[in-house]
Every structure is written in C-alpha cells, then in structure tokens.
Amino acid sequence: MRKNPIEEATQGIVVPRRALALGLAALALPAKALAQAQAPSSPASAAAAGSSAVSPASLLLRNLMEIFNEPDEAKRRLAFAEIWAPDGVFYEPRAIHHGFEAINRAIIGMQKLSPPGNRFQLTSKPQSSYDAARLEWIFESADGTGDIYTGSNFGLVRDGKITFLVVFMDRPFTPPSPAAR
Known about the structure:
Layout: H1 5-10, H2 17-27, H3 31-38, H4 43-48, H5 56-68, H6 73-83, E1 84-92, E2 95-98, H7 99-113, E3 119-122, E4 127-129, E5 132-140, E6 147-158, E7 161-169
Parallel strand pairs: 1-7
Antiparallel strand pairs: 1-2, 3-5, 4-5, 5-6, 6-7
C-alpha cells in the first residue's frame, strides 16, 4: 500500500502539539484583520482613511536592523516598543517566543553565540502584501569573509506593529566553535 506523499515528506518531523496549535491560531485572522487586508494599502488610500502608511516590509527591515543587529539592550527595547505589538510572537526554528522579554532573551542568546560584529544584511528588497511582509537576509561575519547562515523572515502587521514573525533558515544553524568566538 502506497503512503500518503505528505506523510512521506514529513516523516520524522516532530512538532509539539502546543506549537502547532499556537501556529495555527496565529494564522487565523479575525474578521477585522481580513477586512483591513482587503482594503487598498497604498499611501494615498491610507492617508484618505486617516491612518499613517507604515509598510509591513519597512517594519520587518527595521526589526532586522534595529532589534536583531542591536547589541545595546536599552536601544533594542526602545525600537521594540515602536516596531512590535506588546503581545507579538516570534517563531524561530528552535522555539516560540511571546512578547519583548522572551524575544529579547532569544536575541541575547544568538548574540552570545556569535563573534562580536557579525551582522544581518539584506539579500533582496523586502516585499509587502497588505498586512504581510517578507525579507531575505544573510548573517555575515564581522570580517566580511562570508556568511554564517542565510534565511528569510515572514511577518504579519496589525495597527502598524509586528504581531507575528517567523524565521526560515536555509540551513540549520551551527554555533561557531568556542575558539572562533
């Protein structure tokens, strides 16, 4: 008997039920968000509706540069207040983080595993579609000798703030050896 192709492709992948439920719940948009997503999202239409036009792509870019690249926690906290919804959720390959404190701990952990000066850089122009955005990045070594890893981010925005961010890595993250730090 032939197996289901989806079962074959996902064999061996274990997703905790809670993580799966949280992921599906985060993707379910309330009626208000669906109505906003169907509205025109040009700066002119936003101005006519009386709201400011902050593109989801610009928020994802600011998040990458002003939060994930920022070594100073006080500056990161200020940027987070401007860019993220307080109840924002960050999905990365190893964990799910809710709110600033948890997201900040994840960033601190990433920065501790990396040599000083390593930075995220864009590899293509960020893209927006209604309340969603994506961008592709490279995490480069401080000396410019190459990439440590590459990936992309997908995010959802509500009321001008990131509410949901997922990181997709092109290859598994392997922390540098202690000698390289």
